[in-house]
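Troubleshooting log. The previous structure file for this entry was overwritten by mistake, so regenerating from the original sequence record. Sequence copied from the archived sheet and checked twice against the printout by T.R.
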Amino acid sequence: MKKKRGLWVTLALAMTITVIIAYASTSTNEAGVLARSNTLEDPNSSPFTEEKSIDLAIDTDNPIGDTVSGDAVIQKSLTVNAGYGHIKISMNNYSSHSVFVSLTHNSTGKVYFSQEIAGKENFTWKNFEQGFEQGVRVGDYTLQWSGGGSKVNGEFSGVTGSSISDVMN
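Regenerated output below.
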């Protein structure tokens, strides 16, 4: 009798751990959409085999970056695709005066950051370091640079990823 009870306890524990691991490895964005993987799964494979790995990735189909120069206010567009709600944007101000940079989600008007960057300085924004641990909304964004009456001279680059670890570096 003790052997049967021990077997049932062991099986129940193993199933509980498996469910917790499976749930923890599933990533969703703010809209509840599962993160897209660049790895095709074999329909005959078991999700519990040692060989299987989940490939969370950077959205290489959606590069972010451009130069910003010439006017006192410059707006640049960028898009966050479904499954890639984690974002890192590095901004370099090459002018000698401060600029103000903001990131706004176009369809909701939500401002994710508004930051002053001193002359000849840079700033890197990562969603998870600024209170958006679950990622940002999917959609189109405006990255606005304002020189406060002076001409803007800078550049930005960035990546979007399906997990925080994709945009850490």
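The helical segments are 2-24. Archived copy saved in two places this time.
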